[in-house]
Write a structure and sequence with these properties.
The protein is an alpha/beta fold. It has 9 helices and 4 strands. Bound molecules: zinc ion (ZN).
Length: about 260
C-alpha cells in the first residue's frame, strides 16, 4: 500500500492526518467544501452536492500539492441553505446565517493557527457566502475566496453538455456517473420538466425570487439527464480540478500583507 505521507510529503487531508503529520507540515491555504442535503431527482443521492464538492476539493488539493502548494483540505460541511426545497421529504436546511456562523468560527480557528487564506469550495447553488466575505473584511486576517466549483468550467460545460438544466440535470448526473456511479440510478431518471410562473415578468433573470422547488418541478429535477455520461463528467471534472488547483497554488505562494491580493 502506498504511504500518502511518503508519497506527497505533506498532510493535505486534515481528517486523515495525525498530529505528527500536521506538526511536520506548513499550511498556507485551507480549502472548505460545502454541500447540501436535498433530493436530486429520483436518480441521484441526497448527498450529491456534498459528495461533488468534497471530491473536487480532494482532487484539486492533491494536484495543488503536486504543484508545490501548501494546502490543507478541511472536513466538508454536508448541509446547505435550501428552505425552498423543504416541500420534498427529508430536505435538511441550514439558514445561510447559520452557515455563516459556522464558517466564521472556522475562519477564527484558521487565523489562530496562522493559516491566512481560505477557499470556500461551494457545491450548492443556494449557498451564498458573498455577504459574509464583505462582513468579515477588515475583521479577520484571513483572506477568503469563494468558488462555486461548477462556474469554473462554464465554457467547457456549454460545449460538452447537450441539454443544460439546473438541478439533477445532464451536467450533475454526468458528474455523479464520473465520481460515484454506484449511487446513480439511471433507470429512474426523468426528463426534468419545469413549470413557468404565472407572473410572466418573473421569467426575466433580473427579477430574482425564491422558487418553491416542489411547485417548480415534480421530483426536484430541473433539466434532462438522459444524455448524461461518465465521460462527459470526467472531462468537466478534469478542467475544474486543473483550474482550482492552479488557484490554490497561486494563493499558496505570496504572503498575506495589507491590501492583499494587490
Ligand atoms: Zn446539486
Amino acid at each position: 500500500m502506498l504511504d500518502k505521507r511518503i508519497n506527497l510529503m505533506v498532510a493535505w487531508n486534515l481528517q486523515e492526518s495525525t498530529l505528527k503529520d500536521v506538526k511536520e507540515s506548513r499550511f498556507e491555504v485551507a480549502v472548505l467544501p460545502v454541500g447540501s442535503t436535498e433530493p436530486h431527482g429520483l436518480h441521484l443521492p441526497y448527498g450529491m452536492d456534498y459528495y461533488q464538492a468534497k471530491a473536487v476539493a480532494e482532487k484539486a488539493c492533491e494536484k495543488a500539492v503536486e504543484m508545490g502548494a501548501k494546502v490543507v483540505m478541511l472536513p466538508a460541511i454536508p448541509y446547505g441553505s435550501n428552505r425552498n426545497s423543504l416541500g420534498f421529504p427529508m430536505t435538511i436546511s441550514l439558514d445561510q446565517s447559520t452557515l455563516n456562523m459556522v464558517v466564521r468560527d472556522i475562519v477564527d480557528s484558521l487565523e489562530h493557527h496562522g493559516v491566512r487564506k481560505l477557499v470556500i469550495l461551494n457545491g450548492h447553488g443556494g449557498n451564498d457566502f458573498t455577504p459574509l466575505m464583505r462582513d468579515l473584511y477588515g475583521r479577520t486576517g484571513v483572506f477568503i475566496v469563494t468558488v462555486d466549483w461548477w462556474k469554473t468550467v462554464e465554457d467547457v460545460r456549454s460545449i460538452i453538455i447537450e441539454e443544460p438544466g439546473e438541478h439533477a440535470d445532464e451536467f450533475e448526473t454526468s458528474i455523479g456517473l464520473a465520481l460515484f456511479p454506484h449511487l446513480v440510478h439511471m433507470e429512474d431518471a426523468e426528463e426534468g420538466f419545469v413549470n413557468t410562473p404565472k407572473v410572466k415578468s418573473l421569467t426575466y433573470p433580473w427579477a430574482r425570487f425564491t422558487r418553491p422547488w416542489n411547485f417548480l418541478t415534480m421530483n426536484s429535477g430541473f433539466g434532462n439527464p438522459l444524455k448524461s455520461s461518465k465521460e462527459k463528467g470526467e472531462k468537466i471534472l478534469e478542467k475544474a480540478v486543473e483550474r482550482i488547483a492552479h488557484l490554490i497554488k497561486e494563493l499558496s505562494d505570496p504572503e498575506v500583507s495589507e491590501g492583499f491580493p494587490y
